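Schema walkthrough. Field components (list of strings):
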Amino acid sequence: MTASHSLSTEDLTLGYGDRDVIEGLDLTLAAGRITVIVGANACGKSTLLRSMSRLLTPRTGRVVLDGKQVHRIPAKELARTLGLLPQSPVTPEGITVLDLVGRGRHPHQRAFSRWTQKDDAAVAAALEATRTTDLADRSVDELSGGQRQRVWIAMALAQQTDLLLLDEPTTFLDISHQIEVLDLLTDLNRTRGTTIVMVLHDLNLAARYADRLVALAAGRLHAAGTTGEVMTEETVRSVYGMESRVIDDPVSGKPLVLPIGRHHSAAADVPAGSPAGSG
Amino acid sequence: MNAPVLEDQSAVPAPPTLRAVTRARVRGAYRRRIVASAILLLVAAAFVLSLMAGHTFYPAGDVLRVVLGEDVPGASFTVGTLRLPRAVLAVAAGFSFGIAGVTFQTMLRNPLASPDVIGITSGAGAAAAIAIVMFSLGGTEVSVVAIVAALAVALLVYTLAFRDGVAGTRLILIGIGIAALLDSVTSYVLSQAGEWDLQEAMRWLTGSLNGTTWQETAPAGFALLVLGPVLLHQARNLSALSLGDDTASALGVRVERTRLVVIVAAVGLIAFATAAAGPIAFVAFLSGPIAARLVGTGGSLLVPAGLVGALLVLCADFTGQYAFGTRFPVGIVTGVLGAPYLVYLIVRTNRAGGSL
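Field assembly_structure (string):
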């Protein structure tokens, strides 16, 4: 495995029905890094991820992986390089952890090919990486939310792709499980060099775990760059229409966003003339 | 760079984990094979028994000689002409219903989404009844009419259910409505038939193997030999589809293409089986869940569900013929088995807060 894949979009326009969700997006995703996409609800974050793994065909423009348009790469070949964990995957009733993780081997198998030792090794490694080995025989239905999310990540890991896209992998998890999942993805990035691109809702977790941030606003690229460059009070204002203070996180040294609402914000902290200050 | 070293380490699992995974996987595959073989043996036993037993009993030797083409007085007619085509059709139709049923249930991720619940079987049945009763068609023509009608119904249900993608529950509700409509078409056609033959009517209302000849059996058997392998070839794609369209696509499944191939093959199997034996109630609906209970959900359910379907039809037909004072068609017996399970599933869906 190498981490030298390049993934980018060129003048990408995406939409559903007669509505364009993403317009003319040019974006290069850093190889071997963790990139987090942030933006307000319905700004096209998930849509962008879906098009990168060719779940959605672009209106215009293209998604390019290693110089090839992803929509022209054979489905299984693409799935051996690029994995995607959707926001709400479906858990078949009664399936065991081991069987679910094994499904991740699909792109490496053919219709009637036999299960190989290599498949077993990939599954075992995925279980170990996500610390779900002890759950292997359990039914996925009966796991807690955090365990279940780890199992789904294990399935994506068993796919053994160099690029992994995740759509809000921490939704519905409590804070400790969110940290656990993000730490796990960071381990994966550091030890295997897996390129990770994910959508996160929590700005502070995004700022802490991202090497690079991409901020979308209304289907367009607002800012892209290192966390320090992107996570500013100006970005929060433009992307979310909200005033904030951005300070240094005493734990990580990364930016920490403190939202300013109409209540509980000391007057001195509110920039003069801002809408939030007048309330 | 030290990255590759680290990378290799993390990709190689600790030997005990690998051994545990291999052991669990081999154990699962072994169990599936044992259970599937056991069902296969039961199917074979029921098949042979249904050739031997009946109002007259013929020993296995006589049956074997008939099957090999020898002329055995008495047995040649009873076994060769009456029982053999009937038993072969029971296996072919049962297997077809079972494998097509579990295909739909897996693809639509809902045990209620079986072709006999969502109107596809009813469509094939109504078309076949019209073709036979009103137009006096026979054999292959009936099969062709049935398959066209079944595909049309599948397309209709899919189109009516389509609104920004197909939601399982909406499709099922629409399918149940279409099924009721088509069943009343069948009843109407039968009530208009000049010469009202009870046996023939029962075939199209509930499914029956009474009076089966090779003329009915051959197309159904042939369809299974052609379309069965097509479905088996899609088995892994189908398993991936049960994780949701997005996940399946991310795993390299061409979702739309897989769905098209699978629907055409499964609908074809339903149509050929229905044209021969009528819409045998609930076999498609029951086989998958029974197979899942028996073999577990680890591997593909296609073959186990087909075998369970064949076993259900063989046993139900035998029961219907000989267990009661009067001869009941096979569909009555499977209907009695299937209806409570349908009620159970609907009750459970409601309890789970489902929107059905």
